[in-house]
Amino acid sequence: MRLSVGDAAWVDLDANQLDARRITLYDGPIESMLSERLGPLEVTTRLYGQVWTAGPQVVIRWYEAQPPNSEKVPICAVARLSRDQMRKLPESKPGMAILSGSTAAAYIVDAFR
Q1: Which of 23, 48, 96, 108 could be a cystine partner for 17, CB 3.0 to 4.6 Å?
Q2: Which distant-in-sequence residues (6+ apart) come within 8 Å of 106 by Cβ?
Q3: Does residue 3 sit within a domain?
Q4: Residue 103 contacts by C-beta under 8 Å, 6 or more apart in sequence?
């Protein structure tokens, strides 16, 4: 796909909570959406992956991308933000996370760690 490790683009973390100032994520599957181009993947491409909320920060890994009007393709990407911006807010309960923002950067990686 002409994507290299370290390539990144902004994503809306949850396609069902676009433009929200605070979002709630639950353990399990997630559908995200590119808000800028990522190599050959255009804006509004859907990213499918998994959310984990057990630690102090939310972990999101995407394993499939589906460009508009196209088939799903495999990818290996993770959500990253600096300065603890993926940190759960104190009112988060087990199995869920409340975040103060609804976007993050999706980074292409060579493997999930």
Answers
A1: 23
A2: 8, 9, 10, 11, 32, 34, 38, 47, 62, 77, 78, 79
A3: no
A4: 10, 11, 12, 13, 35
State how far the Cα of 112 lies from the Cα of 36, in Å rounded to an integer.
23
- For residue 74, give both structure tokens: 């495999």
User: If you search the block for the tokens 């995407």, which residue do you land on?
Assistant: 62
In a domain? residue 37: yes
Cα separation, 104 vs 9, in Å, equals 8
Question: Out of 3-7, 51-55, 82-86, which region has the weakest mean confidence (pLDDT)?
Answer: 82-86
Does residue 23 lie within any of the structural domains? yes
Degrees (nearest 5) of the Cα angle 3, 61, 95? 170
Q: What is the pLDDT of residue 1?
A: 76
- pTM score, two decimals? 0.92
15, part of any domain: yes
